[in-house]
Specification:
This protein is α+β, with helices and mostly antiparallel strands and 387 residues long. It contains 14 helices and 16 strands. 36% of the residues lie in helices and 24% in strands. Bound molecules: guanosine-5'-diphosphate and manganese (II) ion.
Amino acid sequence: MKLHEFQAKEIFRKAGIPTPNGQVVTTADQAGQAAKDISGPPWVVKAQVHAGGRGKGGGVKVVKEASEVATAAQTILSKPLVTKQTGTEGVTVNQILIEEGVDIDREFYLGMVVDRATRMPTMIFSQAGGMEIEEVAANTPDLILKEHVSPITGWLPSQAGNLIYNLDPVPPPEVRKGLMAVMANVYKVFLANDCSLVEINPLVTTTDGKVLAVDAKMTIDDNAMFRQKALAELDDPREKDPLELQAEKYDLNYIRLDGNIGAMVNGAGLAMATMDVIQSAGAEPANFLDVGGGADEEMISNGFEIILGDSRVEAVLINIFGGILRCDVLARGVLAAAEKTKLNVPLIVRMEGTNVEEGREILQTSNLEFLVAKDLAEAAQLVAKQV
Ligand code: GDP
Ligand code: MN
């Protein structure tokens, strides 16, 4: 679960990580009012959406006159925000954060994730802040520093030293102290909130020697939501794809992708293999949908409905290996969904396993139009030919 920047900053402030003062608003009028309570110039007007790259997409505006705050907010609210992470149709901006502007001296990147290789929380720090960290990693990997945190010792001041004394130039003592405190507190925030990601890009130093989190990103591990009830309240379903919301409700594993082939598969491994085979047949999957090993007729029907609810889908591939999920159950689920939602794109079915004959017969004796593939490779070839 992702948090908004203003929500993450609220948590930061309580944990002792300094941030600029700000207020969240939903209209241009409120933005104008907020500017009166917040010191400036400059003021920073920031779209609150769960997508990064807002600055380059026009979602972050630094203005010099209080009277420009409302106008900037109006501009941002008036149309979908398109960034590198949103897709071309962009996302609706519902909330805006108005902040006091900061006189930036240096910009750093500070992040914490769980490192898969070492299975330890890992702090990532770079003096190349304010730009995309992926680009820094690709072009100047030497500028990215890492410290793994042992769960036995926790974050150690010496680790902060390893990161800070590698900066060029090494900052003055006051700034070093500020950076050390932020690092220790980021680790605390990461643990206390069961995060999979905490990211501050940029973490800045000001011309008067302060250290401030100018941006904030926090992702909470969904598996921890049962014990993070207070954080669950911060969930903003408006930020989610409607089809992903529907899938969540039905307990289906669904991820939207960029292509036009809808795919329904049981089991995450088979789903990934199916994505690959679709791609190698020259087509692009529109989604990843794993109905799960033990799916019942209703889940199949729900899954199929979600795929057909995606207007980009031009052909559907069902690839099921019947184990616990029997092929006859699958067939009934598909028929049930096809009755509810009009099927107006080609359907390719490949199934194998338990009760496969019965499943085939159910489909064949129905009015449903579909093509049968004998194996996965043929299924992918067939489906790719339809688009
Ligand atoms: P992102 O593009 O979605 O990551 O949004 P950020 O919050 O990182 O803002 C984008 C950029 O705006 C930052 O990298 C800064 O360079 C700039 N920015 C944000 N706040 C301030 C501020 O208070 N003063 C100045 N001068 N620049 C700011
Ligand atoms: Mn940023």
